[in-house]
User: Fold these one by one.
Assistant:
Number 1:
Amino acid sequence: GERNPKKSPGLPCAEVTNIFDYIHQESHHHQVTKMCRILGVSRAQYYRYRSPKPSKRRAEDADLKQRILRIFAEFKQRYGVMKIHHELNLELQPLQLRCSPRRIIGYSFSKKMNTDLVLKTLENAVKNRTITGDLIIHTDLGSQYTSDDYNQRLTELHIRHSYSRKGCPYDNAPMESFHASLKKECVYPVPVFEDYETAAAVLFEYVHAILQ
């Protein structure tokens, strides 16, 4: 038959958490409301103890985890810790993203790295950027960039040409960093592209869907 909670053996000491645990153990035999009244504890507190709300820290951690997973999926599982951390900062500081001057304004893709390719890239950039004032373009010392045709076009566009020093890629650090990220996140994960068109499509997606 039903036992009397007043006479239940092994009643814990009067610590609230122990009392709540005891009530839970005996809840199959006695009414929770009755035990709470007899043991001098609040029924509401008992139920809060049994079904605690997540702490603020735990809720924040859960939210952060979901944001990290969303960014990882959004960027095709290509982003590592540093890139994901950067995206999280941009979400917290959207004005910084809008004010940032660094973005891709022109690119081209070809089977050959020649003057025609860099000229095409230049024309693409000019279409996306209004040339005002004293504009400078910085490149390395590759033969494509030192060619007469390329520099003649820069002169026609009133663009000054700046070069990296020989053997000093750090002079063009932003583009070197971009190329390294592109290879690591877009090229290296794919052992072999099926064909040129597939590679071009992957590059297009990377530049437009991920970096812009």
Number 2:
Amino acid sequence: MTRCLVVDDDAEIRSSLQDYLQKFSVTVNTAADGRDMRRLMAAQVFDVVVLDLMLPDENGLSLCQWIQQHHPSVPVIMLTAHGDPISRVLGLEMGADDYLSKPFEPRELVARIHAIRRRAKRGESETQTRREFRFEGWSFDRLLRQLVSPQQVVVPLSSAEYRMLTALVERPGRVLSREQLIELTRAPGVEVNDRSVDLTISRLRQKLGDSPKDPRLIRTMRGEGYLFDAQVQS
């Protein structure tokens, strides 16, 4: 099931797209403006964002840029006015993956969403084949579940710590909210909540030698979540 966020100030468009896309195995959340979009993206993980260029509170181009900065792995389909090539070019330069000119056939949007998901899944399969990540002298082998320090000492990880470190090293430089980390580290039969996220982060910092008062690797972003601040090689 593809998880889609539709951002448009037109309530009729939001409602009609939500009803239509759900017929094609696309779960849809909707936002009327940039504030709603940020709130939803902080709380949930989406596979694609359908973003209207013209919004009442903020320009769609700046929102597209914000998505690129905070959720770089989430593709964006920009909705632009008919016959507006400049906006289309700017949208693509800001990081949009595709665009549609209004008015458009909903079936074409479905086709573009599915095409983007196929490309993303190919990229995910390539990512999954990468078993080793290196950062700040550390080495993390996902398949062996092994973390090795710069001094070549094997540091044992619990299952929760392994899932959390995997989520972080796969998304360096990206702010992840507690809600997103809950989604990314959820496992069958395991309850994950805000408190357990904080505890797992604290234990990971200890094992990585990250100062709790002034952490360098796993930084706390006040009111937003956590950010893995390291150059990661794989």
Number 3:
Amino acid sequence: MYDVLANLKLVESSRICLHESHENRRLHKTRQIIEEEGILRHPPLAIHMQNGQYLIIDGAHRTFALQALGCKHIPLQVVEHEDFHLDMWDHIVPVAAWLQSVEQDSVFRWETERLRETPVAEIKIGDKERFYLYPNENRQDDEWRMTLWRQLVDSYNYSHQVHRLPTGMLECPETGAALIRFPPISLEELERIVSEGHVLPAGVTRFEIDGRLLNLCIPISLLKQEQIELEQWERLVKKWRETLRLYSKPVYMCDA
């Protein structure tokens, strides 16, 4: 049987990097829950990069919250590249003033036809209108691309509720809504963007991963230690190994 717990690592906080920014409201809620419960239920997922750093691919808000709470070590479920699939989220947002502000923003150019160059995003309004958003400035570097992505997402993310759907699940948003679709990026591109010191806006990348470790209930007091008490950690791993269950059928869980 595959030993998933062998991939659970306690990593120094300084060796962890993130590929996306955070949403303030979600971070506040996540930190509050962890602080009140005194435990981390679900470890973030990460890959081990060539430079020795660990890149968080799922669990950015948990990681930010743990760092803000003074945790010196972060438990990570480290996965291999073949264990996950990188995709993107489509954003469904009400049509409102944000759309007009983007239309009037001089950094963007709107086209009704897709050009050879990769667009910043594709925007569909209702079932009839489709636009492609391109940069007005002729730059293709990662820093500029991430700046435009963040500028677009920030235009609606703080003032409207954003519904996220897997790319392609919905082709035509309902009347009064806009669908924003971002071009896909590869894992190699993502690692390069992070190594250059840039981050994506929150909630754009989507990782499909099999075999997540859930409900470990790791004490925050342990993670705040400068030097981890290995005996305590080993006792926890032993307990998890004895109580671990694999559910092979779909499970529905509410994020309260």
Number 4:
Amino acid sequence: MLVKTKGIVVSYIRYKESSIIVRIFTRELGLKAYIVNGVRSSNAKTKMGFYQPLTLLDLVVYNKENVGLNRISEVKLGRAYHKIPFDFLRSGIAMFMAEVLSRSVYEGYQNEDLFDFLVEALIVLDDEQAVLSHYPNVFLWGMARYLGFAPDVAAEFFEELREDFTKQMDWGPEMAYLDSLIVEDFAYADKISVQVRRNLLDHLLVFFSKHLDQPAEWKSVKVLRQMMA
């Protein structure tokens, strides 16, 4: 059966001499894996650029039940980025987003609200007026909200976090900062110290790892923390 859908590329791996297996988070079908034959050859009809992480695509795909790898019938660019590929900070944030997405969704997982949030977040990141200093923290909180494990207010978040610490911690500045982010979302533009922003990022990553049951180190965070200066 052919299905028309929109998709966000999560990742790909090389397959044989000129093909790839690409994981795409689609709006209608959730996370799916597709084999794309010959895309790495010099005379390929479809370019590899379509399958870079976080590329927005318009798709017509084959959807067969109980099949591990489906195929793509038609593909075109859903939206071209104007800033993300050419800006070092935006590219670093996008790399971080791709890792978070890859670790948050699983094969067949469908969540249209999460998909719409991701599209909105990518459009914001590509906007010249985006407030990048707060972006990673706002993005993580939004992901937690649409994945269903974010509490309503910052106090509840830090109360849950406190269970993992053996001594009393003073999280006043981080709590006030998170409360502001929850209210203003990507529009938040106040100046916050680098240390408070980094602290909240670390707390959110601990929170994510706990809820996703994935204790492995976040590979893109080291570079991201340096960018948050």
